[in-house]
Design a protein that fits this description.
Layout lengths: L1 H5 L1 H27 L5 H18 L1 H38 L18 H35 L18 H30 L4 H19 L5 H6 L8
Helix pairs in contact: 2-7, 3-4, 3-6, 4-5, 4-6, 5-6, 6-7
Length: 239
């Protein structure tokens, strides 16, 4: 096919760039599961669990702090969800418009730039922003539930009746689900950067993917002593 002959760089470099980012996150997921204290995600997760236990233990004095902290987290997720859906709407508007953006780029980029390929680029960006929006929306749902559950008083004596299922561990698990969805939404949003550069050619996608992985590596991993690393090798962490 003609578009395959012209777009061999797209078929080679774009999947390679996405595969690099996917492989890094698969490795990061394994690192979080096996050595949580060696990653920012694992340390933050442990800290949130300790925070939930501390808030629910002394809820009468810290209930306002809990609500304000969760409200700020919801505001961050709301901002990202709003941005994602606005960008999705922009991609949909471009796809439905009659203006052809490819004409001024025909002689300036490598790879295929026909109507089919340009539509594929915008549809891919649209899907990434939609899934980012869904992740942030679900994150808001879980954190809203935590907002209610974290203020349930814990039984101090036989006179107080609290559902046995509403424990600090359960609330912390709900919060972790919300924060992991928030992280997934952010990572999908980051993935949109190399895909956005795909409009200007597949070479930029590949080099952008190569640049993103070292940047994320420095942000996701922490330097710790060997003793701290041993604590993260699958052992349960306590506050």
């Amino acid at each position: 096919m003609e578009w395959i002959r012209k777009g061999y760089l797209d078929l080679l470099l774009v999947p390679s760039g996405i595969l690099i980012i996917t492989a890094y996150h698969a490795w990061l997921w394994h690192k979080v599961k096996t050595q949580p204290l060696a990653t920012i995600i694992g340390i933050n997760s442990n800290g949130r669990r300790c925070w939930v236990a501390s808030i629910m233990k002394d809820n009468e004095k810290k209930n306002i702090l809990a609500v304000q902290t969760l409200r700020n987290t919801i505001m961050g997720s709301t901002l990202m969800a709003t941005t994602s859906i606005l960008l999705s709407s922009a991609m949909a508007a471009i796809l439905s418009s009659t203006y052809s953006i490819k004409k001024p780029l025909n002689d300036a980029v490598y790879g295929a730039h026909g109507e089919f390929m340009m539509a594929l680029k915008y549809v891919t960006l649209l899907l990434v922003f939609v899934f980012s929006f869904l992740c942030h929306s679900l994150s808001i749902r879980f954190i809203n539930q935590v907002n209610f559950l974290i203020n349930i008083p814990q039984p101090q004596s036989d006179s107080v009746t609290t559902p046995s299922s509403i424990t600090p561990d359960y609330v912390a698990e709900m919060l972790e689900k919300g924060m992991m969805l928030n992280t997934a939404g952010n990572r999908l949003f980051y993935l949109a950067l190399p895909l956005l550069l795909w409009i200007f050619g597949p070479v930029l996608v590949f080099f952008c993917s190569l640049a993103i992985v070292p940047a994320l590596y420095n942000l996701d991993l922490v330097n710790q002593t060997s003793s701290s690393r041993k604590k993260g090798n699958g052992e349960e962490n306590h506050c």
